[in-house]
Design brief:
Oligomer: single chain
Strand content: 25-35%
Strand order of the largest sheet: 1-2-3-4-6-5
Radius of gyration: 16 Å
Number of strands: 6
Order of helices and strands: HHEEEHEHEE
Distance between the termini: 51 Å
Structural class: alpha+beta
Helix content: 25-40%
Largest sheet: 6 strands, mixed
Length: 139
């Protein structure tokens, strides 16, 4: 996120309104939210919800997954991902590009870039998807 957004004096209040709605508003009751803590300190957060595209081949959308840099590689990211999207569940997400570390993390968990790109808040993002094939019937 650009510094201009993070430095905006109204940013904390806007984030508080966002999280209050995300956690309490019935419109978002199908979302899953998880936090990771270490020694009583918040180190990461993740949130998913139903697919934003009814015609999509995936059922979940990963809205966010953040882990503080000091905790990269500790398993916190995988635990958060698994808490909000079931293993083997099809899903999509948008990730900043370039962001090789995050993109490698998602590839490790079965996501691939599908060629879609967008610019949001001045950040170029690519879409990554994980489509799960139904098991073939036994012969």
């Amino acid at each position: 996120m650009p510094d201009a957004i993070l430095d905006d004096p109204g940013f904390p209040a806007a984030r508080e309104r966002f999280w209050t709605a995300a956690l309490t508003d019935r419109r978002y009751r199908e979302n899953r939210t998880a936090v990771a803590e270490r020694e009583g300190e918040l180190i990461g957060i993740a949130m998913s919800g139903p697919s934003l595209d009814a015609a999509a081949a995936w059922v979940k959308h990963l809205h966010l997954l953040y882990v503080i840099a000091a905790e990269h590689g500790t398993g916190a990211g995988q635990a958060l991902l698994d808490a909000v999207i079931d293993v083997g569940e099809s899903a999509a997400l948008w990730v900043a590009d370039p962001n090789p570390r995050a993109q490698a993390f998602y590839r490790k968990h079965g996501f691939i870039a599908d060629g879609a790109a967008q610019v949001e808040d001045g950040i170029r993002e690519i879409r990554m998807i994980r489509c799960v094939q139904s098991p073939s019937p036994a012969p």
